[in-house]
Amino acid sequence: MTDQTSQTLESSLHGRLIRPGDADYDSARALYNGMIDKRPRLIARCADVADVITAVNFAREEGLLLAIRGGGHNGPGLGSCDDGLVVDLSTLRSVRVDPARGTVRVDPGCTSGDVDHATHPFGLAVPAGIVSTTGVAGLTLGGDTGYLTRKFGLTIDNLLEADVVLADGSFVTASRNENPDLFWALQGGGGNFGVVTSFLFQAQPVATVYGGPIFWLAEHAHAVMRAYRDFLPTAPEELGIFVGLKAVPSTEPFPREYWGKRACAIIGAYNGPAAAAQRVLAPLLAEVPEPAFNWMSEMPFPTLQSLFDPLLPRGLQWYWKGDFVKTLPDRAIEIHIEQAARAPSELSLMHLYPIDGAVHEVAQDATAWSARDASWSMVIAAIDAEPARADDLKAWGRGYWNAIHPHNLGGGYINFMMDDERDGRIQATYGPNYQRLALIKAKYDPHNLFRVNQNIAPAPASEVGITAR
Ligand SMILES: Cc1cc2nc3c(=O)[nH]c(=O)nc-3n(C[C@H](O)[C@H](O)[C@H](O)COP(=O)(O)OP(=O)(O)OC[C@H]3O[C@@H](n4cnc5c(N)ncnc54)[C@H](O)[C@@H]3O)c2cc1C
Is the pTM of this model over 0.85? Predict the structure, then answer.
């Protein structure tokens, strides 16, 4: 690729082409995870769909590695690449609510907070993750769990339609009726199939919730985790709560006497009035010791969604490990508590997010995301501000995961993985759906242009002949 060819690309874009040496190159290439330092050759900051088509065609014709950047929050930094072209969607951030239909059209650079902001005045929300700065695109394409999952399903279960730029530069819409194989693959198959330039979601009736965290000191973790495990299957789906092992943050407004102490927390939301929520939670709270503090209260849903944002600014070091979990026997709880006690930093945590209720009502082969038989999605996140601690974070994350993995299912959520997972892990994650994904990949991206992701290799030509379009 010569300077002249990149100038041709630049002149074809409505957005900007950012190169090494530009004043904002370092800020444009920076990712949420400070542990990842990638240096793309070109960053095409797309202003519209035409720019996306131009950038995809350019990368393919020039043989450049291509990465797609939505919110830039991905653990291993799969929204960027070294020495290739980044299709940067981060400035495409408009959201349009259709209150009559209860649907929401979302641009690919939107954060979860952008969507909550737009939907809340209409008494609506799209079920999505629990930190408002996370990108909707990567979240959705991976599957996505959050506070509303038990009642309304995964984010992909609320996806109605997606516009996609394919590897050959063509533009298609995918839905249950149009290109249904592609739509199926987008529901959990990550960024493997094309650049999604627009999402259409079904929104759900959510306005004020009773939510927030309840913290116990670590000495009560056994009792809390066991009580939570037994309580969850009995709780109404309006209550979305997860359990975590973490530390009380050493910052206001947390009570000073608990700062930095290891703890067990139950964090969640009830989509309904406070009195009903308190009735629902009473049997759980009756089973466990008095908490250090209980901060569940009524709040607008967007407030809950951004509650933890200040604790997790951009640029921290993150090392992620995940697994899907079917059961949580007492022995597994003991291992969690032993491992969490060795956390290398105050921010490091383990969360177990429920996979039940509405998620179980969808058949395993109805979407690419296949862990419909799991009960939780586990994440171990080793986090610290200090780059020199990176090796400690990785060692703890790996050691914890090695200790607990024998109690879990074979696969894990692709959005809770780094890019150092062992061979076969992605196949285990998609289980019986993997082969179909590989065939769809071969149909829409036979040369694996979209490979900066948790990659699904295209099925070999001999197998594709059976289903070629
Ligand atoms: C603080 C924090 C909180 C989180 N909380 C949750 C949570 O509650 N629930 C949950 O499920 N996950 C959660 N996650 C994980 C999150 O799902 C992933 O980090 C996800 O990849 C973020 O998406 P993004 O658009 O920001 O990522 P990016 O880094 O921009 O992209 C990630 C991947 O998605 C692909 N991609 C992005 N945009 C597009 C597009 N338009 N078309 C095609 N492919 C695309 C890219 O190929 C890349 O492989 C959290 C992550 C963080 C850092």
Answer: yes
